[in-house]
Amino acid sequence: MKIYVVYDSENGHTEALAKAVAEGAAVDDAEVSLRHVREANVRDLVDVDAIIWGCPGHFGTISSGLKQWIDKLGYLWAKGALVGKVGAVFCTTATVHGGIEMTLWNLITPMLHNGMIIVGLPGNVPENVMYGSYYGVGITCPVELSPDAPLNLPNEQDLALGRALGRRVAEVTAKLTRR
Question: Is the pLDDT of residue 179 over 70?
Answer without folding.
Answer: no
